[in-house]
Amino acid sequence: MRDIAVFSGSAHPALAEEICRHLGVDLSPSRLTRFANDCLEVQLQANCRERDVFLIQPLVPPVQEHLVELLLMLDAARGASAARTTVVLPHYAYARSDKKDAPRISIGGRLVADLMWPPAHHAFWR
């Protein structure tokens, strides 16, 4: 098995621990900091270089906060030269917003997916 690192967001750490127990790997540490202006900062505190990184974070309430945390974790993993990043998303809160059923509305499901999985050409900008 390739060397992996599994990180948990704050939405459901018990789920991440259970997954790691089944995989027989340790849950890698991360740090979440909240600034005075309510902005978040995430630090992945384990080596990600050339490893397959798994980020476990269901989008449960508060959905927007957990989404931003996940996006920050993804950015940190990519910036740390992870070989691959995989998001484990047991609950996708925007799944019902997958089509345009009225004029002048956004398709939230597609937007959130695009934020997590940018086009392939972005990989060349690292």
From TrEMBL:
<protein>
    <recommendedName>
        <fullName>ribose-phosphate diphosphokinase</fullName>
        <ecNumber>2.7.6.1</ecNumber>
    </recommendedName>
</protein>
<dbReference type="InterPro" id="IPR005946">
    <property type="entry name" value="Rib-P_diPkinase"/>
</dbReference>
<feature type="domain" description="Ribose-phosphate pyrophosphokinase N-terminal">
    <location>
        <begin position="5"/>
        <end position="116"/>
    </location>
</feature>
<dbReference type="InterPro" id="IPR029057">
    <property type="entry name" value="PRTase-like"/>
</dbReference>
<dbReference type="InterPro" id="IPR029099">
    <property type="entry name" value="Pribosyltran_N"/>
</dbReference>
<keyword id="KW-0067">ATP-binding</keyword>
<keyword id="KW-0545">Nucleotide biosynthesis</keyword>
<keyword id="KW-0808">Transferase</keyword>
<dbReference type="Pfam" id="PF13793">
    <property type="entry name" value="Pribosyltran_N"/>
</dbReference>
<keyword id="KW-0418">Kinase</keyword>
<keyword id="KW-0547">Nucleotide-binding</keyword>
